[in-house]
Write a structure and sequence with these properties.
Oligomer: single chain
Number of domains: 1
Strand content: under 5%
Distance between the termini: 27 Å
Shape: globular
Order of helices and strands: HHHH
Radius of gyration: 14 Å
Largest sheet: none
Helix content: 40-55%
């Protein structure tokens, strides 16, 4: 599971510390794709109306897989390796 979190972190998919409503998944997705959190949440709800049920399963999975953002902007629980 750490490999998946590392891939998410490398792609910029982290749950931010600020701007969260529930778990920070929509805020993280919005940040990754360059949109504000509220339009990302509205898009999520609209997708839920179009394809019911799938997002209810996807959100908790992303909540588990997306790493948290740390204070310095790196994901929590990741090793820091300085560039030498």
């Amino acid at each position: 599971m750490n490999d998946i979190r590392d891939r998410f972190r490398n792609q910029g998919l982290v749950r931010p510390r600020d701007g969260r409503v529930l778990g920070g998944v929509c805020a993280g997705l919005g940040r990754r794709f360059g949109i504000d959190p509220w339009p990302a949440r509205l898009l999520f709800v609209l997708l839920l109306l179009i394809v019911p049920g799938s997002q209810i399963l996807i959100y908790p999975v992303l909540w588990i897989l997306m790493p948290k953002e740390s204070v310095s902007g790196q994901a929590v629980g990741t090793a820091y390796a300085p560039n030498v």
